[in-house]
Amino acid sequence: MTCVALIPAAGSGSRLAGPQPKQYASLAGRPMLWHAVAAVCRPPVETVFVVLAPGDTGYRSCDWSVFAGKIAPLYCGGETRRDSVYNGLVAAMTAVNADDWVLVHDAARPCLPAADLERLYAECRHDEIGGILALPVAETVKRAGKDEAGAQRVAGTEDRAQLWLAQTPQMFRAALLAEALGKAKSSITDEASAIEQMGLRPRLVAGSHENFKVTYIEDLAIAESILARRAA
Ligand code: CTP
Ligand code: MG
């Protein structure tokens, strides 16, 4: 059974607000995207498709030689993450079989531990639907609402025992994922949402804090320290 990875890397990184798109922010001497590719370019993954913005200029200025023969750039990113993943999946379908596993992974998660990838695959490879890495919520979660003066106030407390934070990779069979994304709204923020909207329940596989999503400028130093510790 074949297994491929697909990395949407066509975002702008508006919350990080760096001088270049977030996926090209420098971490340990390499672009963040390079580390995300390295994290998934290992067995059982055979090919890594990277979905880039049509006007991307960063990719060709990086050295991808260590992944030669295993990495395929696709210049078909869209307006939203869902659009980028869907466009990339449609483009990759010429090389992917309907039953192949597709592991969708954020370019913004450069510190995915190898053990997390292995656990996800081991727990989902015989699953009917597939699944995602996720973390049980550790903090107390408040619902917010504005008062008459427009100030944010606590409107309620959620039951955190039922709440998990979705990470990536998210692992589904190619044909099911393409069908689900084809029916989904552009505004969904992960692949599992599209699968859920088909009435299916993806498996939750425990991930780790190291696989956090680099979102704000201060996250770069945290990612850098994780990568530096592993290299040492
Ligand atoms: N992504 C994408 N195409 C888009 C938007 C996002 O391929 N139109 C990708 C990003 O490049 C990233 C992943 O989806 O690898 C997760 O998105 P996020 O962390 O939100 O990155 P950005 O959208 O770039 O950042 P921001 O939301 O702060 O603008
Ligand atoms: Mg975004």
Q: What is the CATH topology?
A: Spore Coat Polysaccharide Biosynthesis Protein SpsA, Chain A
Helix content estimate: 25-40%
Main-sheet strand order equals 5-4-1-6-10-7-11
Spans of 5+ residues with little confidence (pLDDT < 50)? Answer: none
Helix count equals: 6
* Radius of gyration over C-alpha positions, nearest whole angstrom: 18 Å
How many E-type strands? 11
Which class best fits the helix and strand makeup? alpha/beta
Mean pLDDT: 97
Give your account of this protein's structure.
The protein has helices at 32-40, 81-92, 114-124, 174-183, 191-196, 219-231, and strands spanning 3-9, 26-27, 30-31, 47-52, 71-74, 101-104, 130-136, 142-146, 152-157, 164-173, 203-206. The protein is an alpha/beta fold and 232 residues long. It has one domain (3-127, 168-200, 212-231): Spore Coat Polysaccharide Biosynthesis Protein SpsA, Chain A. A seven-stranded mixed β-sheet has the order 5-4-1-6-10-7-11, with helices on both faces. Strands 2-3 form a two-stranded antiparallel ribbon. A two-stranded antiparallel sheet has the order 8-9. The longest helix has 13 residues, at 219-231. Bound molecules: cytidine-5'-triphosphate and magnesium ion (MG).
